[in-house]
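B., you asked whether I could sanity-check this one before it goes into the benchmark set. Here's the sequence:
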Amino acid sequence: MHAGGCECGFVRYRLVSDPIFVNCCHCGMCQRASGSAFAINAMIEADRVEVTSEGVPETVVTETGAKGERCPRCGIELWAYHRMFGDGLRFVRVGTLDESGSVEPDAHFFVSRKRPWVQVPAGVPSFAELPGEGEEGWPPEVQSRVRAAVEG
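And here's what the prediction gave me:
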């Protein structure tokens, strides 16, 4: 499975299963949080992310209510939570994975807010905002895992 950690190595983690879904998010919040034009997020059940180091991430809630977990030493955000899904799902920042290049987005979200110079690859689903339940961007197996994590 995938392993990752912060920049300084104090917090290390692993995903004990494949992510539910990987998205490239172009929303304003992800742009600010990543300091870039987008963030690539691996959505996975919270109980499938195991911290493997003695270092423990700290929960940070911004003034806007955004919630994530960061290394208390170097400040790198390891994963975030989405207000629509609660604490049952984590949005792991793919850039913190050891082999981040091996994880490709299943879809692009909030392309209505993407930077004009960013090109979405042909053949990859893209949505103006967040796809609704039942849309092409959320296959049935994704919907069932998300529902179980949110309700569980």
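One thing to flag: The radius of gyration is 15 Å. Otherwise nothing jumped out at me.
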